[in-house]
Each structure stands twice: as structure tokens, then as C-alpha cells.
Amino acid sequence: MNKAFGSGAAVAGVKKGAQHVAAVRDGRAVYLDGKKVDDVSTHPAYRHAVASAGALYDYQADPANIERMTFDVGGGRRVNRAWQLPTSYAELVERRKALVEWAEQSCGFLGRSPDHVASSMSGMMMGIEVFDNYDPKRAQAFRDWYDYARKSDLFLTYVINNVQGDRSKAFGDQGKNAEDMVARIVDEDASGITIRGAKLFATSAIMANEIFVGSGQPLRPGEEHLAFSCALPMGTKGLKMLSRKSFEAHALSEYDNPLAWRYDENDALVFFDDVKVPWERVFLLRNTDMCRAQLHDTPAHVYQNYQAQIRLSVKLRFLVGLARGIAKTIGTINFPPVVDTLGKLASQAALIEGMVLGMEAGGAMRGDYYLPNKHLLYAAQVQSQEMYGQIVATIRELAGGALLMLPSSVDDFSNPEIADIIGLTQISPAMSGQDRVKLLKLTWDAVGSEFASRHLQYEMFYAGAQFVTRGHSYRTYDWERAAGMAEKMTGKYDLPEFKGSN
Questions:
Q1: pTM over 0.85
Q2: What is the Cα gyration radius of the chain?
Q3: E strands in 234-357
């Protein structure tokens, strides 16, 4: 195997959790609270999230699940269906069912699970002719890397956003000290390119195998030094990750913060400190339009956001289930206003799930591959961006003060005197006091904690600001068909003839 893609071929069989956990012990440079993290798989800020990623691979490797979750890529190797390139509606549905099962393992709270960027890269592969028309050498580099990533069932992340800086100014106008603010090409030779500068937002980078580096934001003429895409192992020399605050590290216990305890996938700023990228891992170079084309002229953008809506449909189902559980717990389940509210929540969750099914049924072939309906995808994004915050607010309203008057931590149960008081006050018609606290702690972690606030922000902006998703919806709607109906109707009549008129 080419040295750019590791020291050996992917092993036969299916990737398992232990293999993934071992792979993140690669010397990656992660910085938290002013210190370099020695091993993300054992550090209190990341260990449970890394284990949760490993659990996804164990789930797909379970003999009871392997046929549904994986497919054969040759050489006795089976990989997750996120890497599948559907050639029909039936294959797309089969693939989606596997992605739903994976999302269910985290109740949808692993927003950047391994199937997300794998879906994006698979979309690029479905549109490889875009790369061929640009540069056959770069196209072959992508083909070779994609084949390696797929056969290895890699957990990929990506950074395709630039540091915000002063939004009122272009990159070149940020000032003399902003030269390294955005990752750029600083050198090029026979062996590859060297990049320096920063990129956002590396969600799940802490526990990924490799990172795709590109640009999802428009670039202007004169910014060709910012225009490149490549892929790098997370342990690459000079690649530095500045972790945000770890919610896992601050989770009191699994009982108190069950979601943050397991699924804090983390987000990081990535700084490339003169990172050398061999040509075998460079997919485009100094072409600003190709930065756009690799995502939007291929099915990459469609497939990555289709996966996101699949995952979100699972998350909304979980949240709606929590809402009903709260109503049962506090004894309001039969109140007419509560039934009305739950009915609306159920319709909102079903709307996104139904739109996913609609994307599939309304899809079409693009060459050899079957794609979800693009407009229904972007329409779902517009709705879900608005809907997520509404659902969270509604659940908080249903719970009321129940979310505030909870024991300080699980340790309160270890004190018999306090435990007795908890038993007297945490009364529920549906469950014990301990289980009531357990459900409400889970609910708070989902809708009220700092972890939950990060998820609210993520669901509102991971696909871009609302004007961005609405713009996608505007551009992909069949306006001619819609306007044509009005034109056809007005064409059926005219002004009547009035007496005495000429």
C-alpha cells in the first residue's frame, strides 16, 4: 500500500470497537485547559465518547446485525453501509435503515457520527467526473484515498469552515497579524504541499481517524492560496486540535448526566502548523470554483445533509418520547392541553421522518447512482432548524419546575436521611422516586444543561445559518412548475367585453 495511506491493508472481517479505540492512540496533538492530552481514549474529558464511537463498530460487527449494517467491499472485508453507493431506490432505503440503527445507539446525539463524513465523501465519489474534468491526477488521488478509507471503514471528520474573524471584511483585509488565521498553502514542491493556519469546526475530530480539509465557503479571486482540499490522519505532525470545554469532564456521573457522560463528541479548532501533505492526499489545488464544485456539483452536499436529517429524525423521536414520559411521570398525561401539545410534538417529529422518506421516494438517478430529492432535503433542513428550538422549549414547558427541584447528584441517595426525603418528595403516579429523578435528569441533560445548549446551537447552525439553508431551498424548488399553474389559470380567461367599448 502507498505509504500515504498507512502501513498495511485493511484487515479482513468487520471493524470492531477495540480496533477503533486502539487507532486513536496515535500521538494526536489535542490541547485542553492549557495542556496537551496524552491519550484521548483514557482522558476523563474524552474516554466515554471514544468508547461510544467504538460501540458503534461493535454494534455493526455483532453477528445479529452484520448483514443489515454492513456490505461486502471485497477481500473478505465488510464495511458500514454509509460507504454504499446506491444504484437504486431499494439500495438507498437499505442504506438508510442501517444509518437509523446507528443513530439509535446514541439517540441521535452523536451529530458527527462516522456515517456523516463517509456519506459526504461517498457523494464526491458518485460525482468523480467533476474531479476528472478538473484534473485527472487529483481525481485519481481522491479515488485511491477513498478506496483506502472505505476498505478501512475509517471514522472521518472534516473542517470546511474558515475562522470568522471580522465578518465585515474579506480574509485579505483582516490585518497584518491575520496571515495565519485561515489555513493556506505556504509551500509546494515535488513531494506535496505545506499548509499553515486554522480551520473550523472539527466536530468529533478528537475520536476520528482522519480529517478532510476543504472549503465550504465561497472564495474570491486572489484567494487561490486558500483553495485546496486534502485528507490527513489525525496524528499527522503539525496538526494541532484546540478542544472546546469538555462536557464529559464536567458530568458528575452517568446517572446525573447520561448524555454528556457518553456522547460529548467535542468540537475543536484545528491549526495546521506547517503540515506537509503528500500529493497522494491532495484532491484539488488553487482552484476557488472547484472548492464549491466538489461539494455542490457532486452529490456530496446532498448525501451529507441527507444523513444529518436521518440522524435528526431519530433524535426528535427520542425527544418526543421524553416529552410523553414527563407527562406520565408528573401525572398530566390525560390533561387535554397536554394531549394537544404532545400531538403537535408528534407531528413535528413525524414531519422530518416523512420528509426523509419523501426524499427517497422522490429521488432520481444521476448517472449510475440514485440520489435523494434535493429540494425535499433542503426543505427539511429549513423546517428542522426552526423546529428543534421549538421542541426543546415545549419540553421544558411541559416539565415546568420538575426539572429544577432535583437532587444535587446521585450521591444524595447514599445518605439515608436525604434519600428518605427524596422518596417522600419525588412522587410519581407512574414510577418510583428514583426512576422519576432518573428520567428528569435525562431530560435536563437533553434540553437544559450546557451539553443540551451546545446541541441546540449545533442543530441551528451545523448546515449554515437559516438564510443559507433557505437559499438552498429557493434554488432547488421547481418554480417554473409552480408559476406555470398560475399562468395556466390566468390564460383561461380575459377581461369581458363591455357594452359600448371599442
A1: yes
A2: 25
A3: 239-243, 268-278, 282-285
